Every structure is written in structure tokens, then in C-alpha cells.
Amino acid sequence: MVRTQIQLPPEQHRALKRWAAERGISMSEAVRRCVASQLERDEAVGSRPARVREALSAVGRYEDPEGPSRVAVDHDDHLADAYDGT
Asked: Dihedral sign, CA of 32, 37, 43, 48?
């Protein structure tokens, strides 16, 4: 392992210390778990450029052959219909 020194604001330090104590782990282990969790989340989501490319690839792909709809304008009515059908 590589030794790393960090500084935390007092409120983060207290919260992390409490979180570690609740789990019966050291502060170092708590930091490692938090970092690992964030890195996994970031990896699952992908980079911003990749997310932008993916979003742009969907633009126009699902165009309604009957023309533009008013779903965005009439969304409250559609929701009301959906909930009435339950």
C-alpha cells in the first residue's frame, strides 16, 4: 500500500469517523472503501464525453413516424391517465 496523507473538513472527519466506528473498521479502511465506491460508480457511468456521445446517438432515433407529439406539453394529462388505469 501507499501511504497518503489527506486533510478533511471537521464535519467530514466526524462523519467518516462515525461511519467507520459503526462498521468496526479503521478510518483508513473507511477512506479506502469510500474511494473504491466512488471509482466504481464513475467507471459504471463512463466518462462525460462517452455519455455525451451516447446521448447524441439517440437524438432522432426514436422519431414518431406520425410526426411530433405533444407528450412534453401534455405530460400531466398522460400521467393522470396512467394513474387512473391502475
From this structure: negative
Query: Exposed, middle or buried, 24 (CB in 10 Å: 0-12/13-18/19+)?
Result: exposed
How many other CB atoms are found less than 10 A from the CB of residue 37?
A: 10
Q: What is the pLDDT of residues 17-54, one digit of tens each?
A: 999 999 999 999 999 999 999 998 888 777 888 888 88
CA distances from 8 to 12, 33, 38 (A): 6, 16, 17
**pTM of the prediction?**
0.55
